[in-house]
User: Fold these one by one.
Assistant:
Number 1:
Amino acid sequence: MLLLAIAAVAGSTPPTRFAIAALLASVAIDFDHLPGYMGSHLLTGNLPRPYSHSLLPVAILALVALASNGRWRPVLLGAAFGLSAHLLRDLATGPGVSLLWPADGDPVTIPYAAYTGVLLIGAAATGLSVWLGSVSRRSDRRRLAALPLQSVGPPGGS
């Protein structure tokens, strides 16, 4: 949803590689819960969520993306965006997220209403952008329809 809102407001679509990486990363991050389901606390220690549910992986991906160029940059930025979107949701659900791990393991939470507000603002921005785009396209069509038709022929009028 956030990706659609940002794309709509920006007036452009993100590269396909960015979007796919964002979608995959936003879901794949939860694979880090599997050891916990099998009884291991290797990836969580005493934290409410696994270590990778922090800003550290987001920062690493963003820094590597900035240092890279070419085809990998949108993939890395998309993955960082996807992880960020996932963390935003996790802030409002469950026990919170240790955003500043390893410096600070205290979980951070936001009220679910705040998360809902972010989603509603994103949906409204997307809807408004789409509506404004359709109004603009209709206006362009009206202007084109009002233009006088001219015969098109070879230069010089022969």
Note: The chain has a mean pLDDT of 85.
Number 2:
Amino acid sequence: MPSSGSTRNRPPERPIPLFVRVVGDDHPKACTGRRLLHRGLARAAGEPRPGAGPVVLDPYAAEPLSPADRGRVVRTGLLVIDCSWNRLSGRGRFPDGAARAAGVHRRLPILVAANPQHFGRVAELNTVEALAAALSVLGRDGEAGRLLEGFAGGANFLAINRERLVRYAATRDGEQIRAAERALFAAGPD
């Protein structure tokens, strides 16, 4: 049946560029960043130029990633620094200044890990979970789901965090993300 012309076909959205910088202190078989690179799902990050780099997912950034960041992320991509949580704990920064020259830093909204190493821990996501969470917050659920395929706990991650991710994706900006976090975690995480 011919189209009446009243419905427009939107061109498919361009996938968000994903970058990984592996610092190298994780166990190679447990390193989801290396596996993303090996599978061609992300590109290795070189040294970004100041102000021109992708949005850096940084657990110590003050501002949370929100749908307001979508335009910039589509243009410049997302960068994760793949390193051990043991190196991050208590330091308040990445090892060896790994992300110092990159562009804007954003933390992920509060989520619960589903990976075997940190299952049930609040905010201790592995690299693939972090990228999938960012994609979901930015309204790219399909990309998030495809990214998690074949990773232990991948499908569980989206299921465990479904309510949180839906709430975060429905916000406009960082202030609304913080309000959603307060509401979702007021009684403690599930």
Note: The two ends are 49 Å apart (CA to CA).
Number 3:
Amino acid sequence: MKALRLFLIFSMWSLLSSGQDISGSWNGVLKFSGIQLRLVLNVTRTSNGYSATMDSPDQGAAGIVVTKTTFQDSILHCEVAPMGIQFDGKMQKGDSIPGTFKQGGQELPLTLSRGIMVRTKRPQEPVKPYPYYTVRICSN
């Protein structure tokens, strides 16, 4: 009977701990001073916890090493020490992590969501047929 209880307890423990895995890509948008800055947090599970890198596609930055990544009791804490960046958030149902992004004395709300952020293509040299009317003006 004791063995069955222990088995059930350990089975439940493994199910609960696996349900809180945060591995994968998380994205969000920082909004400040009329600017929107996309951020991507790439989290990987390691043998002793988690590691992560951060991308800032709008600034052309990728693979920024997150020096500290912890996830305990549904709380995600990330630091990029050389840049003075810190993020703290609590995982919610539906795969979102609302929290606070801190850098340089500023605190900004940031909600991370699962998945890879896709930016729509906006070519600088449009190709016919244009999605708008054009008018040709001739001068004599």
Note: The beta strands are 24-32, 35-46, 49-56, 61-66, 68-72, 75-80, 85-90, 96-103, 106-114.
